[in-house]
Amino acid sequence: MKKSTLALVCAIAISIVGCGRGPGLVVVPEIPTQISGDLQPLWSMQMGPIQLVQSQQAWSRDLQPVALDGQRLMLAHGQEILLLDLDNPRRPEQLWRMEVETGSLAAGASIADDVFAYTTDKGALELRQLDDQQLLWRQQLSARANAKVAINGRYVISYNQDGLVQSFRQSDGQLVWQYQTRVPDVTLLGTARPVIAADQVIIATPGGRVMSLDLITGQVNWEYRIAVASGRTGFDRLVDADANPVVMGDSVFVSALNGQLVQIDLNTGRVRGSVNLDTLVSPLILEDRLIVISPEGNIQGLSPTGEPIWSIDDWRLRRYTAPQLWGDYILVADAFGAMLLLDPEDGRVHHAQQVHGIGYVQPPLVVGQDAFFQSASGRITALRLR
Fold first, then answer.
1. In degrees rounded to 5, what are phi and psi of residue 3?
2. pLDDT tens per residue across span 184-203
3. Non-local CB neighbours of 24 within 8 Å, separated by 6+ positions
4. Contact between 150 and 201 (Cβ < 8 Å)
Protein backbone atom coordinates (compact mmCIF):
# COMPACT_ATOMS: atom_id res chain seq x y z
CA MET A 1 0.00 0.00 0.00
CA LYS A 2 1.24 3.50 -0.74
CA LYS A 3 2.62 5.19 2.36
CA SER A 4 0.72 8.36 1.47
CA THR A 5 -2.54 6.43 1.39
CA LEU A 6 -1.75 4.83 4.73
CA ALA A 7 -0.91 8.22 6.22
CA LEU A 8 -4.22 9.58 5.05
CA VAL A 9 -6.13 6.66 6.48
CA CYS A 10 -4.31 6.98 9.79
CA ALA A 11 -4.93 10.72 9.87
CA ILE A 12 -8.63 10.08 9.46
CA ALA A 13 -8.64 7.63 12.36
CA ILE A 14 -6.71 10.06 14.58
CA SER A 15 -8.99 12.99 13.81
CA ILE A 16 -12.08 10.90 14.51
CA VAL A 17 -11.16 9.47 17.89
CA GLY A 18 -9.50 12.59 19.16
CA CYS A 19 -6.17 10.93 19.94
CA GLY A 20 -4.03 13.25 17.84
CA ARG A 21 -3.10 16.76 18.87
CA GLY A 22 -0.44 19.22 17.90
CA PRO A 23 1.45 20.01 14.67
CA GLY A 24 1.35 17.65 11.72
CA LEU A 25 -2.31 16.69 12.03
CA VAL A 26 -4.01 16.78 8.64
CA VAL A 27 -6.73 19.45 8.37
CA VAL A 28 -10.01 17.98 7.15
CA PRO A 29 -11.81 20.30 4.70
CA GLU A 30 -15.29 21.45 5.63
CA ILE A 31 -18.28 20.81 3.39
CA PRO A 32 -20.15 24.06 2.66
CA THR A 33 -23.86 23.87 3.39
CA GLN A 34 -26.00 23.66 0.27
CA ILE A 35 -29.71 23.26 1.03
CA SER A 36 -31.95 22.04 -1.81
CA GLY A 37 -35.31 22.23 -0.07
CA ASP A 38 -36.05 18.61 -0.99
CA LEU A 39 -35.24 17.23 2.46
CA GLN A 40 -37.76 17.25 5.29
CA PRO A 41 -36.73 16.44 8.89
CA LEU A 42 -39.03 13.87 10.50
CA TRP A 43 -37.69 13.11 13.97
CA SER A 44 -34.57 12.64 16.05
CA MET A 45 -33.81 10.71 19.24
CA GLN A 46 -30.87 9.76 21.45
CA MET A 47 -30.24 6.13 22.42
CA GLY A 48 -28.83 5.98 25.94
CA PRO A 49 -26.28 8.48 27.28
CA ILE A 50 -23.96 10.23 24.83
CA GLN A 51 -20.55 8.55 24.97
CA LEU A 52 -17.57 10.00 23.11
CA VAL A 53 -15.79 7.36 21.06
CA GLN A 54 -12.31 6.70 22.41
CA SER A 55 -10.89 4.05 20.10
CA GLN A 56 -10.85 2.86 16.52
CA GLN A 57 -12.19 -0.46 17.84
CA ALA A 58 -15.44 1.26 18.78
CA TRP A 59 -15.73 2.83 15.34
CA SER A 60 -15.54 -0.58 13.65
CA ARG A 61 -18.81 -1.79 15.22
CA ASP A 62 -21.57 -2.66 12.73
CA LEU A 63 -24.64 -0.95 14.20
CA GLN A 64 -26.59 0.07 11.10
CA PRO A 65 -30.36 0.22 11.75
CA VAL A 66 -32.51 -2.47 10.15
CA ALA A 67 -36.05 -2.19 8.77
CA LEU A 68 -38.84 -4.75 9.03
CA ASP A 69 -41.54 -4.69 6.34
CA GLY A 70 -40.94 -0.97 5.86
CA GLN A 71 -43.10 -0.29 8.95
CA ARG A 72 -40.79 -1.08 11.86
CA LEU A 73 -37.23 -0.04 12.67
CA MET A 74 -34.77 -1.85 14.95
CA LEU A 75 -31.99 0.20 16.51
CA ALA A 76 -28.93 -0.91 18.49
CA HIS A 77 -26.37 1.09 20.47
CA GLY A 78 -24.31 0.51 23.61
CA GLN A 79 -26.23 -2.16 25.53
CA GLU A 80 -29.63 -1.11 24.20
CA ILE A 81 -31.86 -2.53 21.45
CA LEU A 82 -35.26 -1.11 20.66
CA LEU A 83 -38.01 -1.58 18.08
CA LEU A 84 -40.03 1.33 16.68
CA ASP A 85 -43.33 1.40 14.81
CA LEU A 86 -43.11 3.89 11.91
CA ASP A 87 -46.81 4.04 11.11
CA ASN A 88 -46.72 7.73 12.05
CA PRO A 89 -43.55 8.91 10.26
CA ARG A 90 -43.21 12.00 12.47
CA ARG A 91 -43.90 10.35 15.84
CA PRO A 92 -42.59 6.78 15.88
CA GLU A 93 -43.99 4.55 18.62
CA GLN A 94 -41.63 2.46 20.76
CA LEU A 95 -42.87 -1.13 20.70
CA TRP A 96 -40.25 -2.47 23.09
CA ARG A 97 -36.80 -1.82 24.53
CA MET A 98 -34.26 -4.23 26.02
CA GLU A 99 -30.88 -4.09 27.73
CA VAL A 100 -28.17 -6.55 26.66
CA GLU A 101 -26.73 -8.20 29.77
CA THR A 102 -23.62 -9.80 28.26
CA GLY A 103 -21.74 -6.63 27.30
CA SER A 104 -21.93 -3.75 24.86
CA LEU A 105 -23.04 -4.51 21.34
CA ALA A 106 -20.28 -5.29 18.87
CA ALA A 107 -22.71 -5.76 15.97
CA GLY A 108 -26.37 -4.84 15.77
CA ALA A 109 -29.34 -7.01 14.94
CA SER A 110 -29.78 -9.32 11.98
CA ILE A 111 -33.39 -10.47 11.52
CA ALA A 112 -35.00 -13.55 9.99
CA ASP A 113 -38.72 -14.21 10.28
CA ASP A 114 -39.63 -13.88 13.97
CA VAL A 115 -36.12 -13.90 15.53
CA PHE A 116 -33.11 -11.58 15.68
CA ALA A 117 -29.42 -12.14 16.46
CA TYR A 118 -26.59 -9.86 17.61
CA THR A 119 -23.06 -10.08 19.03
CA THR A 120 -21.40 -8.39 22.02
CA ASP A 121 -17.91 -7.13 22.78
CA LYS A 122 -17.46 -10.10 25.14
CA GLY A 123 -17.75 -12.48 22.18
CA ALA A 124 -21.31 -13.64 22.82
CA LEU A 125 -23.78 -14.45 20.03
CA GLU A 126 -27.42 -14.34 21.13
CA LEU A 127 -30.66 -15.23 19.37
CA ARG A 128 -34.00 -13.87 20.65
CA GLN A 129 -37.68 -13.89 19.80
CA LEU A 130 -38.75 -10.74 18.01
CA ASP A 131 -42.09 -10.28 19.76
CA ASP A 132 -41.10 -10.69 23.43
CA GLN A 133 -37.25 -10.66 23.28
CA GLN A 134 -37.06 -14.09 24.92
CA LEU A 135 -33.53 -15.51 24.79
CA LEU A 136 -33.58 -18.68 22.66
CA TRP A 137 -29.89 -19.48 22.92
CA ARG A 138 -26.47 -17.97 23.56
CA GLN A 139 -23.12 -19.13 22.19
CA GLN A 140 -19.59 -17.97 22.98
CA LEU A 141 -17.73 -17.17 19.76
CA SER A 142 -14.03 -17.79 19.23
CA ALA A 143 -13.56 -13.99 19.27
CA ARG A 144 -15.75 -10.91 19.09
CA ALA A 145 -17.56 -10.37 15.78
CA ASN A 146 -17.73 -6.70 14.81
CA ALA A 147 -19.65 -7.52 11.61
CA LYS A 148 -23.33 -8.39 11.68
CA VAL A 149 -24.09 -12.08 11.45
CA ALA A 150 -25.90 -13.59 8.46
CA ILE A 151 -29.17 -15.39 9.22
CA ASN A 152 -31.60 -17.14 6.88
CA GLY A 153 -34.10 -19.11 8.99
CA ARG A 154 -31.90 -22.23 9.20
CA TYR A 155 -28.39 -21.05 10.07
CA VAL A 156 -26.68 -18.15 11.83
CA ILE A 157 -23.22 -17.37 10.41
CA SER A 158 -20.61 -15.25 12.18
CA TYR A 159 -17.25 -14.03 10.88
CA ASN A 160 -15.08 -13.36 13.92
CA GLN A 161 -12.11 -11.03 14.41
CA ASP A 162 -9.71 -14.00 14.61
CA GLY A 163 -10.72 -15.04 11.06
CA LEU A 164 -12.92 -17.97 12.10
CA VAL A 165 -16.24 -18.43 10.29
CA GLN A 166 -18.75 -20.23 12.51
CA SER A 167 -22.14 -21.66 11.51
CA PHE A 168 -24.81 -22.34 14.14
CA ARG A 169 -28.13 -24.09 13.71
CA GLN A 170 -30.82 -21.47 14.19
CA SER A 171 -33.26 -23.82 15.90
CA ASP A 172 -31.02 -24.73 18.86
CA GLY A 173 -27.66 -22.90 18.53
CA GLN A 174 -25.70 -26.08 17.86
CA LEU A 175 -22.35 -25.48 16.11
CA VAL A 176 -22.63 -27.01 12.63
CA TRP A 177 -19.23 -26.20 11.14
CA GLN A 178 -16.39 -23.69 11.27
CA TYR A 179 -13.74 -22.57 8.83
CA GLN A 180 -10.51 -20.70 9.56
CA THR A 181 -9.44 -17.88 7.25
CA ARG A 182 -6.06 -16.20 7.41
CA VAL A 183 -5.89 -12.80 9.12
CA PRO A 184 -2.80 -10.66 8.40
CA ASP A 185 -0.77 -9.21 11.27
CA VAL A 186 -2.01 -5.70 10.44
CA THR A 187 -5.52 -4.81 9.24
CA LEU A 188 -7.40 -1.52 9.13
CA LEU A 189 -11.01 -2.20 10.06
CA GLY A 190 -11.59 -5.88 10.79
CA THR A 191 -14.01 -8.02 8.80
CA ALA A 192 -16.81 -7.65 6.28
CA ARG A 193 -20.24 -9.16 6.90
CA PRO A 194 -20.74 -12.78 5.82
CA VAL A 195 -23.42 -12.99 3.13
CA ILE A 196 -25.75 -15.95 2.53
CA ALA A 197 -26.58 -16.40 -1.16
CA ALA A 198 -28.79 -19.44 -1.85
CA ASP A 199 -26.73 -22.42 -0.62
CA GLN A 200 -23.47 -20.48 -0.24
CA VAL A 201 -21.79 -18.25 2.34
CA ILE A 202 -19.68 -15.49 0.79
CA ILE A 203 -16.69 -14.33 2.84
CA ALA A 204 -14.38 -11.39 2.04
CA THR A 205 -11.22 -11.53 4.12
CA PRO A 206 -8.74 -8.95 5.50
CA GLY A 207 -6.13 -10.84 3.48
CA GLY A 208 -7.59 -9.67 0.18
CA ARG A 209 -9.50 -12.83 -0.75
CA VAL A 210 -13.12 -13.73 -1.42
CA MET A 211 -14.45 -17.25 -1.06
CA SER A 212 -17.64 -19.24 -1.26
CA LEU A 213 -18.33 -21.80 1.48
CA ASP A 214 -21.03 -24.44 1.26
CA LEU A 215 -23.89 -23.38 3.54
CA ILE A 216 -24.48 -26.94 4.77
CA THR A 217 -20.93 -28.28 5.17
CA GLY A 218 -18.60 -25.28 5.21
CA GLN A 219 -16.52 -26.76 2.40
CA VAL A 220 -14.84 -24.30 0.02
CA ASN A 221 -16.66 -24.04 -3.31
CA TRP A 222 -14.29 -21.50 -4.86
CA GLU A 223 -11.79 -18.84 -3.84
CA TYR A 224 -10.32 -15.80 -5.58
CA ARG A 225 -7.56 -13.36 -4.63
CA ILE A 226 -8.73 -9.76 -5.10
CA ALA A 227 -5.50 -8.08 -4.03
CA VAL A 228 -1.90 -9.20 -3.66
CA ALA A 229 0.11 -7.96 -0.69
CA SER A 230 3.38 -6.27 -1.62
CA GLY A 231 5.88 -4.17 0.30
CA ARG A 232 8.44 -4.58 3.05
CA THR A 233 6.31 -3.90 6.13
CA GLY A 234 2.93 -5.04 7.39
CA PHE A 235 1.56 -1.55 6.79
CA ASP A 236 2.76 -1.57 3.19
CA ARG A 237 1.07 -4.94 2.63
CA LEU A 238 -2.46 -3.98 3.66
CA VAL A 239 -5.02 -5.54 1.28
CA ASP A 240 -8.17 -5.48 3.41
CA ALA A 241 -11.38 -6.68 1.73
CA ASP A 242 -13.50 -5.10 4.46
CA ALA A 243 -16.26 -3.81 2.19
CA ASN A 244 -19.38 -5.97 2.45
CA PRO A 245 -19.88 -8.25 -0.58
CA VAL A 246 -22.76 -7.18 -2.82
CA VAL A 247 -24.89 -9.97 -4.34
CA MET A 248 -26.87 -9.11 -7.47
CA GLY A 249 -28.61 -11.98 -9.26
CA ASP A 250 -26.09 -14.75 -9.81
CA SER A 251 -23.08 -12.47 -9.32
CA VAL A 252 -21.22 -11.18 -6.29
CA PHE A 253 -19.21 -7.93 -6.35
CA VAL A 254 -16.26 -7.64 -3.95
CA SER A 255 -13.59 -4.97 -3.57
CA ALA A 256 -10.37 -4.60 -1.61
CA LEU A 257 -7.87 -2.00 -0.50
CA ASN A 258 -5.03 -1.68 -3.03
CA GLY A 259 -6.79 -4.20 -5.26
CA GLN A 260 -9.75 -4.65 -7.58
CA LEU A 261 -13.51 -4.57 -7.79
CA VAL A 262 -14.41 -7.98 -9.18
CA GLN A 263 -17.67 -9.46 -10.42
CA ILE A 264 -17.74 -13.21 -9.82
CA ASP A 265 -20.21 -15.86 -10.96
CA LEU A 266 -21.68 -17.27 -7.75
CA ASN A 267 -22.10 -20.75 -9.18
CA THR A 268 -18.72 -21.26 -10.82
CA GLY A 269 -16.38 -18.76 -9.18
CA ARG A 270 -15.45 -17.46 -12.63
CA VAL A 271 -14.53 -13.79 -12.85
CA ARG A 272 -16.96 -11.98 -15.13
CA GLY A 273 -15.23 -8.61 -14.93
CA SER A 274 -12.79 -6.56 -12.90
CA VAL A 275 -11.79 -2.94 -12.39
CA ASN A 276 -8.60 -1.76 -10.70
CA LEU A 277 -9.58 0.46 -7.79
CA ASP A 278 -8.69 1.19 -4.18
CA THR A 279 -11.56 1.32 -1.66
CA LEU A 280 -12.50 0.55 1.93
CA VAL A 281 -16.29 0.64 1.51
CA SER A 282 -18.73 -1.20 -0.74
CA PRO A 283 -19.30 0.48 -4.12
CA LEU A 284 -22.74 1.43 -5.39
CA ILE A 285 -23.43 -0.53 -8.57
CA LEU A 286 -25.87 1.14 -10.94
CA GLU A 287 -26.89 0.16 -14.45
CA ASP A 288 -24.34 2.41 -16.15
CA ARG A 289 -22.26 3.67 -13.24
CA LEU A 290 -19.94 2.47 -10.51
CA ILE A 291 -19.86 4.88 -7.56
CA VAL A 292 -16.71 4.33 -5.52
CA ILE A 293 -14.93 6.13 -2.68
CA SER A 294 -11.16 5.99 -2.38
CA PRO A 295 -9.38 5.68 0.99
CA GLU A 296 -8.35 9.33 0.62
CA GLY A 297 -12.02 10.34 0.31
CA ASN A 298 -12.40 10.98 -3.42
CA ILE A 299 -15.97 10.22 -4.53
CA GLN A 300 -15.89 8.94 -8.09
CA GLY A 301 -18.32 7.97 -10.81
CA LEU A 302 -16.90 5.33 -13.14
CA SER A 303 -18.16 3.59 -16.25
CA PRO A 304 -18.82 -0.18 -15.94
CA THR A 305 -15.32 -0.72 -17.38
CA GLY A 306 -13.69 1.57 -14.82
CA GLU A 307 -13.23 4.70 -16.95
CA PRO A 308 -13.55 7.90 -14.86
CA ILE A 309 -16.66 10.00 -15.60
CA TRP A 310 -16.57 12.44 -12.69
CA SER A 311 -14.78 12.92 -9.38
CA ILE A 312 -15.27 15.02 -6.24
CA ASP A 313 -11.84 15.79 -4.82
CA ASP A 314 -12.44 18.94 -2.75
CA TRP A 315 -13.66 17.27 0.44
CA ARG A 316 -11.19 14.49 1.08
CA LEU A 317 -10.25 12.82 4.38
CA ARG A 318 -13.82 12.84 5.69
CA ARG A 319 -14.16 9.03 5.81
CA TYR A 320 -17.38 8.62 3.89
CA THR A 321 -19.77 5.74 4.43
CA ALA A 322 -20.63 3.41 1.57
CA PRO A 323 -22.73 5.22 -1.06
CA GLN A 324 -26.47 4.48 -1.14
CA LEU A 325 -29.15 5.17 -3.73
CA TRP A 326 -31.86 7.48 -2.33
CA GLY A 327 -34.49 8.34 -4.89
CA ASP A 328 -32.63 9.71 -7.91
CA TYR A 329 -29.57 10.67 -5.88
CA ILE A 330 -26.45 9.16 -4.33
CA LEU A 331 -26.38 9.51 -0.54
CA VAL A 332 -23.18 9.49 1.51
CA ALA A 333 -22.58 10.44 5.14
CA ASP A 334 -19.23 10.99 6.81
CA ALA A 335 -17.34 10.59 10.05
CA PHE A 336 -17.83 14.26 10.90
CA GLY A 337 -21.63 14.21 10.85
CA ALA A 338 -22.31 15.60 7.37
CA MET A 339 -24.30 14.18 4.47
CA LEU A 340 -24.25 14.73 0.70
CA LEU A 341 -26.78 14.12 -2.06
CA LEU A 342 -25.10 13.78 -5.46
CA ASP A 343 -26.35 13.48 -9.03
CA PRO A 344 -25.11 10.10 -10.34
CA GLU A 345 -24.81 11.45 -13.89
CA ASP A 346 -22.24 14.17 -13.25
CA GLY A 347 -21.50 14.16 -9.50
CA ARG A 348 -23.15 17.55 -9.00
CA VAL A 349 -23.89 18.28 -5.35
CA HIS A 350 -27.67 18.56 -4.95
CA HIS A 351 -27.73 18.92 -1.16
CA ALA A 352 -25.14 19.17 1.62
CA GLN A 353 -25.62 19.74 5.31
CA GLN A 354 -24.34 18.97 8.79
CA VAL A 355 -26.79 16.50 10.33
CA HIS A 356 -25.07 15.81 13.66
CA GLY A 357 -21.90 16.87 15.46
CA ILE A 358 -20.75 13.29 16.11
CA GLY A 359 -20.00 11.39 12.93
CA TYR A 360 -21.45 8.46 11.05
CA VAL A 361 -19.68 5.12 10.80
CA GLN A 362 -22.34 3.05 9.07
CA PRO A 363 -24.27 4.03 5.93
CA PRO A 364 -27.70 5.54 6.49
CA LEU A 365 -30.56 3.09 6.11
CA VAL A 366 -32.78 4.02 3.15
CA VAL A 367 -36.41 2.88 3.26
CA GLY A 368 -38.40 4.29 0.37
CA GLN A 369 -38.33 8.08 0.59
CA ASP A 370 -36.95 8.07 4.16
CA ALA A 371 -33.37 7.73 5.40
CA PHE A 372 -32.28 6.94 8.96
CA PHE A 373 -28.90 8.19 10.17
CA GLN A 374 -27.28 6.72 13.31
CA SER A 375 -24.27 8.55 14.70
CA ALA A 376 -21.42 6.97 16.65
CA SER A 377 -22.88 8.54 19.81
CA GLY A 378 -26.29 6.89 19.30
CA ARG A 379 -28.23 9.86 17.88
CA ILE A 380 -30.85 8.69 15.34
CA THR A 381 -32.10 11.21 12.77
CA ALA A 382 -34.85 10.54 10.21
CA LEU A 383 -35.09 12.60 7.02
CA ARG A 384 -37.56 12.40 4.12
CA LEU A 385 -36.73 13.09 0.46
CA ARG A 386 -39.69 14.87 -1.12
1. -65, -35
2. 876 766 689 999 999 999 99
3. none
4. yes
Low-confidence winner among 94-98, 143-147, 275-279 (lowest mean pLDDT): 275-279
pLDDT of residue 190: 67
Predicted TM-score of the model (pTM): 0.89
Calpha distance 48→29 (Å, rounded)? 31
pLDDT interval class at 25 (50, 70, 90): low
β-strand partners of 193: none
Query: Cα–chain-centroid distance for residue 384?
Result: 22
| Alpha carbon distance 108, 336 (integer Å) | 21
Q: Which residues fall within 8 angstroms of residue 79, CB to CB, at 6 or more apart? A: 48, 99, 100, 101, 103, 104, 105
Across 29-33, 215-219, 240-244, 370-374, least confident range: 240-244
Inter-residue contact 67 to 84 (CB < 8 Å)? no
DSSP 8-state secondary structure symbol assigned to residue 13: H
Asked if 176 and 164 touch (Cβ cutoff 8 Å), the reply is: no
Structural element, H or E, at residue 196: strand 195-197
User: b/e for 186-201, b at 16 or more Cβ within 10 A?
Assistant: ebbbbbbbbbbbeebb
Amino acid symbol at 81: I
Q: How many CB atoms are located within 10 Å of the residue 22 CB?
A: 5
Strands 299-302 and 290-293: antiparallel
Question: Pick from 215, 188, 200, 224: which is nearest to 60 by CA?
Answer: 188
